[in-house]
């Protein structure tokens, strides 16, 4: 056991930018990708993870001081310290049974792949910590370690099925083929689903509202860089910064908003050849079966709708922390609410109006969740000795990840009848979400314009656009010689056709 624990700790100490590329290199070689291409893809993936981590930390380091300053202006003083996800993750990794969850994840994933119960191969080993944390929550609530392992196993199953469900939406949002996000963070969509369905009845919520659509409507003010600068400046002024301080925050936010899409292209460059090789191998061995590679959520971080939403929610979280009766948590380290926004991005198809609306409605769930779980997180910190907690204080996480799942399942196994009902409701909600997301159009084809046309997502890279158009680019006038147009009818709305109109048109489906 000690040898296994030492091996796991050694791998973890390498960090995700190192061990994930190593895993992907192995997968690429197993899939018979050329060695030089596999090595280059793995190194590019490491660069992408490192770059995204740098920019995310840069963004959070810029926003967090403003949030702290804003909390002073609001005279907030609450006794639960917000450690954020990084603090809770560090404490969780120190738990004595942490190393057991690697083989648990691999075993469940292997069994589900073998029996074709999932298409997702989860290589996101870093986020094993949130399975460990679920175990700790259930164990502390029920006093039963077996129940802890059981609920953690249930979580793994739902994450893998979630990976299957989200894959085509993630590919549409990022342009990266064959990858998905089997992360608990995305399963908050189960709670968001009925709220999002209610928004269907509001006309403005059914119009294109991603960053590109906004830029078309409001011009330069919808540009990523300009939008980041405006939001940063407003946040700085709201936090009581001087004009120079607000200007500095504006430039920092603009820089992050500009760099996110640039770095996200590296994920595509790294993962596309590996995904293609994996799918080719699976088609040969399993008669056309697909395998999706499960990665951490930062592959979605290039979508600026995500960052616009979380920044706008910062002052809203602080106001609610002050006004909500019974709340004990002051948002600080976890004030960038990633626990909400990833699920909202996927569920709404990057619709900013829906994301912001859902964020405002559900922020109290996170604050009350953080208040409820503060004693458990504090106990975990004291048990592991990873963090010292002063007398009279508690430790928590203001944007607590999956508070619904962990509360319902922990208390259901604790014998609470209301929690058992909520577990059944949650599972039914997941089934509803799963069916809906497998039927609903992908984000780029989901919302209609004022003319009733499908909105086109122009966030794809130039390479992706060229790939989509390559079947048309070689069409020539000579190609129509001898073609049968007898079944072609003239519509009422048709116009006169000139030779230039035929240039680039694909006639591959017309019979000769």
From TrEMBL:
> Listed GO molecular functions?
galactitol transmembrane transporter activity
The record describes its membrane topology as: Multi-pass membrane protein
Which Pfam families does the entry mention? Answer: EIIC-GAT
> InterPro entries under this entry?
EIIC-GAT, PTS_EIIC_2, PTS_sugar-sp_permease
Highest rank taxon of the organism: Bacteria
What is an annotated GO biological process for this record, any one?
phosphoenolpyruvate-dependent sugar phosphotransferase system
One GO cellular component term: plasma membrane
Keywords linked to the UniProt accession: Cell membrane, Membrane, Phosphotransferase system, Sugar transport, Transmembrane, Transmembrane helix, Transport
| Intracellular or extracellular location(s) | Cell membrane
Q: Which PROSITE patterns match?
A: PTS_EIIC_TYPE_2
PANTHER family associated with the record: PTS SYSTEM GALACTITOL-SPECIFIC EIIC COMPONENT
Identify this protein by name.
Pts36C protein
Taxonomic path: Bacteria, Bacillati, Bacillota, Bacilli, Lactobacillales
